[in-house]
Write a structure and sequence with these properties.
Layout (H helix, E strand, L loop, with lengths): L5 E13 L2 E16 L2 E10 L2 E9 L4 E6 L4 E6 L4 E8 L2 E18 L2 E11 L4 E12 L1
Antiparallel strand pairs: 1-2, 1-10, 2-3, 3-4, 4-5, 5-6, 6-7, 7-8, 8-9, 9-10
Length: 141
Amino acid sequence: MVVKAQEVTITLKTIQTQANDVEEYDLETKGELFQKGETLYLRYEEELEGQTVKTTFKIKDEQLLLTRRERALSSSLDLRPGQLTTTRYQTQYGALYLEVNCLKYTFKRVDEKTGQLKATYELSNGQEILGKYKLRLQFKA
């Protein structure tokens, strides 16, 4: 089955808090939106530190899977409200595993080409919280 992708505009805001340091990241870009079964896929490319990174959001009502891939680096973040999951960051030096605690996740689809999601989560090394993150994403055709 061939799934036709639709071009959408993506607006993403991320707030990262580590210790007393707060960083905000804003992005507006074009991407592709398509659906397979009950799962919605949102893909786009972005430039980070001089590298092109392919980012995919795999969106379900109760789960968000965020995957980023660049030549030597990759990560996969599994967000499920109320559940601890493990994420893997692959670097040129090896893999790093962190625990993910999804504190809040909501997804609202306005119509076939418009929606928004919000997620709040913490990353830890199993002993201490390394950072707290807020992710806000909107897409529209």
